[in-house]
Amino acid sequence: MSGSTLQLSPLDAAGSPVRPRSLICPSILAANFARLGDELSLIEAGGADMVHVDVMDGHFVPNLTIGPPVVRDLRKATRLPLDCHLMVESPDALLKDFADAGADKLSVHAEACRHLHRTVQAIRGLGMKPGVALNPATPLDAVSVILEDLDFVLLMTVNPGFGGQRFIEGVIPKIRSLRALADRRHPSLSIQVDGGITLDNVARVYDAGADWFVAGTAIFGTRDYSATIGQFKRSVGIPEA
Ligand code: DX5
Ligand code: ZN
Question: The domain that contains 74 carries what CATH number?
């Protein structure tokens, strides 16, 4: 009996590895916080696949946003999965609060975790899907050893902290490298991209190997969220319902 954990990629008709499903994830950081419930209803009706929730502590990043009490209310306001991106200095102390609040997926930054493997196990143990986020300048080595323990890796395509920043082109080869690594070792791993994603660059990011597309300004900055989400879906090969 071999002890190998090698997973063979399922292949499509053309012989290429089958990719995880593409998902459009509006980031509510760019929504109107004075009427969050309405904003959620609009993106849900408009075909969003999950809600991206940016949690910032004023330490890991200079900005300050929301925490578990708001997530608890978001949970009551939508059926979409809640994808919480923790940009905080000490995520371990908050994991249970997010699980109790109803987070479905939870990402922590490798740069903020002293014992990343332990933190990932704790997230899964609390019933959430674990992801690890990497800043643009953090190499993939930071997640390589624990790749099989993750549901997703979030590759930041801006420096975290603010919406509306310009996409960093230099991350594209990193997406390609991670896709190649995942195809060899963990084909069901989803690659999430976050920051500066627009209708102008999303197809290139998809071609490089990304699966989950976070977009704040490019969705909430438009008048018709449903039309914009539809355009995003067409750009990344998602058949519209
Ligand atoms: C940045 C956040 C992003 C942000 C993306 O630190 O992690 O999720 O909301 O916003 P846009 O799409 O406007 O760059
Ligand atoms: Zn984010």
Answer: 3.20.20.70
